[in-house]
Amino acid sequence: MASALQRASAIMASGTMVSRVLGLAKSMLLIYAIGQLSRSADAFANGNVLPNTLYMLLAGGMLNAVLVPQIVKSVNNPDGGRAYLNKVLTLVSVALFAVTALALVAAPALIWLLSPEWPEEQRNLAIAFSYWCIPQIIFYGWYTVLGEALNAKKVFGPFTWAPAIANVVAIAGILAYILIFGASNNPPVSGWNGWSIALLGGSATLGIAAQALILIWPWRRAGLGFSPDFQWRGVGLKQTGKTAFWGLAAVTAMTLGGFVTTRIMNMASGEGPALFAMQQIWLVFMLPHSVIAVSLITAYFTNLAELGQAGNIPEFKRSFVAASKQVSMLMVFAAALLFMAAPFVSRVMWASGTAEDIAIIAQVIRVYSVGLAAYSLMFTTQRGFFALSDAKTPFYFILAQLILLIVGTSVAVLYVEKAQIGVAYAGVWTLTTVGQALFALWLLKRKIGDFGVKELCGSFVRFTLAALPALIAGYALSNLSAIIAPEFGVVLAIIFALAISAVMGIIYVAMLLLLRVPEASGLVRRVLRR
Fold first, then answer.
1. Would you tell me the crossing angle of helices 2-34 and 275-288 to the nearest 10 degrees?
2. Which parts pass through the membrane (predicted)?
3. Cα dist. 375→46, 319, 505 in Å?
4. Which residue ranges make up each domain of the chain?
């Protein structure tokens, strides 16, 4: 049993890693093709953000909160869940087609709401992209239902590997666009035509379609079929429960907040980092969190859930603190490293950007990086609440952060130039995320009693002290690299980033051992054993 779980975990981890690498390559090619700070890039981002946002609100939240638990239960039925899945897939398909049709009709109004300050020509380009991208809603929904059903059948590989196919198709579309229409850091909005819009927007949608439709083959191999069934009694919409309600409420709040912040970021289009650039920066920011924090907490979550459901709160507290310390120890270093390597990462992502463009992108990454460890700690605390079957409390600290973010950003843009809106947004996000993490810890303490908050804060201070010498060394090496190569390309950027990473890593581990941090000693022993 253990070996089977390990194999399944390895398959899922490898699929996720390959998908992330291909996603990074796709972003680099897209930036090369249409620039990162151009009005055309922001038009594409707004046209493509609609299906993602609507899917999260209307499909992703509903499927994950309401239908997925029912899908998992249905596979234990005598027919293996076939009848139930026919009902669900029919219902979801009807809903997705209806939402897609409404989104296509409402696209001009939605784009206008997101970008009232834009010139009409740029807004029309965003609307044109949205018509090609909005059909992604249908395929996102199918991908979720088909994939979750396969997971329930313990067929894990296809669901995690399918996004890699989406990225391959999208990469092919971007390469075709570059070969036919060329690449530019600042393609004029007036330079687009029906063919170029169709190729870039259509290939993005084709990738999502491939991601969903490729699951039909393993679906059939798992013994599942499909015949439309419009008798929707028993689908389970009335069995949502409190957890599903609050989970869906959190998704709704984040989606509505995303609309507001998107509108604010669109004000910077053509002047500085706007929606497209902020999306690519967020991708870079999320890499260490996804690879390190999510992996660690996923490993801890089963144990936390078992302890929480059994009511073993003392052991739950110890396990939660251990998880929080490990995540914080690694993410403090990741934040320090991302801060110092930001100029080199920016150059790797945007090989053709000017020195001034790279500098402003690096500045946003650095501001974001200050909140990286707090974001991962908040994520850990949120999973702690979920392990206790409490989705209501996380809704409160998510909502509080969103309100502060919207208010803070709305005020900040009144006092900064448009070119600095991206930096201001990142700064407000960092401050509110630090507050969110502290608020979440306080709420958890209220729920389960003191779990060693002072001890956890003390460990965080030691991690920060250990990171300071590493930061100083990274700063010195960064300045040295600027002397050696004031203008550096992608190859030198990679070399400089690797050198700084190695030196900072050695210093950080040495300082942790010097400060006698138990988690560091255990980590070093495990590495040496392997």
1. 150
2. 12-34, 54-72, 84-113, 125-146, 158-183, 195-217, 243-261, 281-301, 327-346, 358-381, 393-416, 422-444, 456-477, 489-515
3. 26, 19, 21
4. 2-225, 250-529
What φ, ψ does residue 141 adopt, rounded to 5°? -65, -45
Helix axes 82-114, 136-152, angle to 10 degrees: 150
For 96-114, the DSSP string reads HHHHHHHHHHHHHHHHHHH
Give yes or no for a contact between 394 and 440, defined as CB atoms under 8 angstroms apart. yes
Quote the percentage of the chain above a pLDDT of 90: 48
Question: For residue range 111-163, what is the model confidence (pLDDT) as tens digits?
Answer: 999 999 899 999 999 999 999 999 999 998 888 888 877 776 767 677 778 88
Q: Is the pLDDT assigned to residue 232 strictly greater than 90?
A: no
Residue of 325, 331, 323 whose CA lies nearest to 301: 323
Give the residue from 19, 484, 463 showing the smallest Cα distance to 283: 19
Asked if 326 contacts 299 with a C-beta cutoff of 8 angstroms, the reply is no
- Whether the pLDDT of residue 5 is over 50: the answer is no
Q: How far is CA 295 from its chain centroid? A: 14
What distance in Å separates the CA atoms of residue 195 and residue 330, rounded to the nearest whole number? 47
Confidence of residue 526 (pLDDT cuts 50, 70, 90): low
Q: Is a pLDDT exceeding 90 seen at residue 88?
A: no
d(CA 304, CA 320): 7
472 alpha-carbon distance from chain centroid: 30
Q: Tokens standing for 493? A: 């950027």
Question: Rounded CA gap, 277 and 426, in Å?
Answer: 12
Tell me the pLDDT tens digit for each residue of 470-501. Answer: 999 999 999 999 888 888 888 999 999 999 99
**Is residue 449 classed exposed, middle or buried when 0-12, 13-18 and 19+ CB atoms within 10 A define those classes?**
exposed
Q: 186 vs 30, 33, 35, 91, 183, CA distance in Å?
A: 12, 9, 6, 44, 9
